[in-house]
Amino acid sequence: MTSSEVPDTQKAWVSVRRGPPRRSLELKEDWPVLKTPQANEVLVKIKAAGLNPVGHKFMKLLPNWIAKRPHVAEFDFSGTVADAHESKDFSVGDEVYGWIWPLGLQQSTKQGAISEYIRIPESHLVKRPSNITPIEAAGISLAGLTALQALDAVNLEEGQTIFINGGSTAVGSFAIQLAKLRGAKVVVTASGKNEEYVRKLGADEFIDYTKVGPLHTFLGHTQPPATKYNVVFETVGLFDPSLYSHSSKYLAPNGLYISTGPQPWNQGFHLNLIPQGLRLIGALGLPSFLTGIKSKFLMVGVHNSVEDNKRLQTYLSEGKVKPLVDSVFKFDDALSAYDRIMTSRATGKVIVQVDPSL
Ligand SMILES: NC(=O)c1ccc[n+]([C@@H]2O[C@H](COP(=O)([O-])OP(=O)(O)OC[C@H]3O[C@@H](n4cnc5c(N)ncnc54)[C@H](OP(=O)(O)O)[C@@H]3O)[C@@H](O)[C@H]2O)c1
Q1: Measured from the CA of 266, which atom of ligand 1 is nearest?
Q2: Which CATH number covers residue 43?
Q3: Domain interval for residue 122
Q4: Residues 168 and 56 in one domain
Q5: For a substitution probing ligand 1, which of 61, 171, 189 has the most ligand atoms within 8 Å of its CB?
């Protein structure tokens, strides 16, 4: 296909106002296709799109003037190159996956993943390995790179032990596999129903977080010093700072605490958020001689990196890391896909099938 055969308009799920997805999103039949790739860009015909919590959180949180609505929703996609422009690395017909990120790129181009076409810098794409389906590939970039970049940030090494809070989150599922690849011992939390899921991914030890009471108390009391963690990776986005503020009890000397970022809107509004927020501000904002907290708080901020995209692609093509799919929804039923991810119970990615022939 050349750009002359690409239609001028497309179907797209567009965020038009602030609110939960059922209020924020409208299905447009005539959304413009940015047909002509500029320097270092290609045009991709999308096959599938993956949802991420950041998508619906920003819909609910950000006013129009910050979110720069309207724009197409979501970030992760897979598809086929429809116009390779002047690319040396991609040709028309190549099977690819990638993401539109950061938020500013989505906002300035008005594009997103739940649409039929996307014009995207080629640095944000890689070729899809043949052992990965388009549905699987649509859920890789954002969560996979978050896990990869978090483990890089703490420099997890062979023989070390990592505690992953939230082993069945999409980020946690990638983190378990990547930590095992690095030769680390992996201890994870999940609810009991997901024990088999995280063990299959490589978790060595499992803690059912629904059964042990406050996690920081459990870890502080039950872990003998010999099994202290070199890294705690908090993937859930807990707003309560307790896991961090007590972490010197279960972190090894020089151990590191890294988080995907405390998020008040994870659990919806409840009154406990106020004292939790005050304790969080204290834990992160006050000097350690006042709080007694010795561990440093690191936060991963996922970013695009050609090298990281290629590393992840290599692990996937070698079968060392597997993408995980929770559920697949038809394009017209994208709002039900949001209902699913917003339960916070998904194991693996929630995918919207854009190409009906898949
Ligand atoms: N900073 C960044 O750059 C960045 C990047 C990506 C994601 N994030 C954030 O990271 C978080 C995770 O994202 P995701 O896409 O991986 O989430 P997700 O896949 O939607 O998470 C769903 C999973 O969370 C588990 N879970 C929920 N509450 C839990 C708890 N208290 N303890 C342990 N597990 C729990 C659920 O398992 P159970 O049913 O067993 O509870 C379910 O399997 C989100 O808050 C997201 O916004 C940040």
Answers
A1: 45
A2: 3.90.180.10
A3: 3-140+324-353
A4: no
A5: 171
